[in-house]
Amino acid sequence: MIPSRLFAGLLLALAPLLLFTLLGSSQSLPTRVTASLVIHHGRVHTLDRALPEAQAVAIAGERIAAVGSDEQVDLWISPQTTVIDARGATVLPGFNDSHVHFVSGSLSLNRVELGDVTSREEFARRVAATVKNLQKGEWVVGGGWDHEKFPGATMPTREWVDAVTPDNPLWLNRYDGHMGLANSAALRIAGIDRNTPDPPGGLILHDSEGNPTGALKEAAAGLVQRLIPSANEEQLTRAIRQGLAEARRFGVTSFQDISHATELRIYQKLLAAGELTARIYAITPIELYQSEVQAGITAGFGNDWIRTGALKGFADGSLGSTTALFFEPYNDAPNTRGLFNAMMLPEGHMLQMAQPADAAGLQIAIHAIGDRANHEILAMYEEIARRNGPGPARGRRWRIEHAQHLRPDDFDLFARLGVIASMQPYHEAGDGVWAEKRIGHERALTTHAWRSLLDHGVRLAFGTDWPVVPLNPMLGLYAAVTRATLDGKNPNGWIPEQKISLAEAIEAYTLGSAYAEFTDNQKGSLTPGKLADIVVLDSDLFHLPPDRIKEAKVTATIVAGKVVYSAP
Q: Does the predicted TM-score (pTM) go above 0.70?
């Protein structure tokens, strides 16, 4: 009897000839089939349990042909083969960002950026610099600010920017997208004054004299946002091309995007033109569920490049804006427990949308941050299962986007229902600076609870929420492994018992995200037959000190067997 390892090695060595025997023509027999591209001399982390580690990968066309040692895979090389020497660095499946706002992120590359601003003066200076390039009456847009970075965690007001925007309406999102700042010109256009009532699911902040400060939370932000002229298709296409270049640079070969019809049309045009360099799972707003049901769309509808069939809703807001919904009041804002999103109102409204969508075979993905919001969505999923029965044979793969704060009692329910936790680990680095001020230490113990979720058998899918944080997956891997915070005050990690291993974090960013979009049989691991979406790094991640993971760079990004990015 041949030992199994020896047999496997022999089979891999003969694979080129075997492949030709299966696919070749009996009238024209070349000596062997060769690879179009080979990556060798690497540390290949395959995410395939049958062969977890290897040295080399061979690609034939758009798919992986072989994975193994250098000696085995080099048999696929011919004079026509492109060969990449990984030089001992890590080779991974392409990163799959499970939660992005791709158009917003792409547009943000050319807008006011306030993510690193720490003072009122710099805030105003950056706005003024942008206004110089605008015409009178043109909107100033952008954002990324975080008031927790300002002295005394001061909330910005219209007075910060009015002097430099006398002739331009302004709207600047907080980094989490759940509130923003309008200047006086924008408030005037929106008709917001001291007498304007809070809309359902929203809040207008007022100063001591009762006048609006310009800060608007949740649904109240829509009073201004709806007035901002939308970018036209040409502008959006230009921006998306820039966003795709950003994705290539960071090794993001797939992303799961909150998309509308216009974006889908642009993605299809770019695909037809050969310009699409990342695969897209388009998640549409749950309010549009009826049109998807009527069209007969189900989860995973589409092709290898563009797929759809998922619906996104919102249960609450964000921790930073004190609109995430908790069972108990905020420690630093005891007058509030957060807000239900307008989609949850009146009670049962979300269920009225989600149940028929689930019955039609669509995937449901709900944003939930606070512990009560997460509990309410888990309870809704449980009710849908009771009403609709076991669901399609392929499984529902329900999702909760963010799953940021959980009650200990809800981990088992999360696992029992098979709900995927679609999470963004780099959020922890920022939240950890000030979260305990909001909710106290006890509730923080199950915040960004990756370890607890995995230990209960919950599937993780990692992403960024770009443009809330950068698109770079290395930052997410670094946060998941170290739980370091941006202020540097937690050298051993904030709530360190929730750390996970580098291998677990990579799996969440690749195979886990593929599972979350029903494509784990096509991508997410370096397995022969799967799509050839691969990332080559400049270092061996598994031998880097954890605090240096964030410094690792992508040297090559390969999508569908083609090198779409090569580092200078």
A: yes
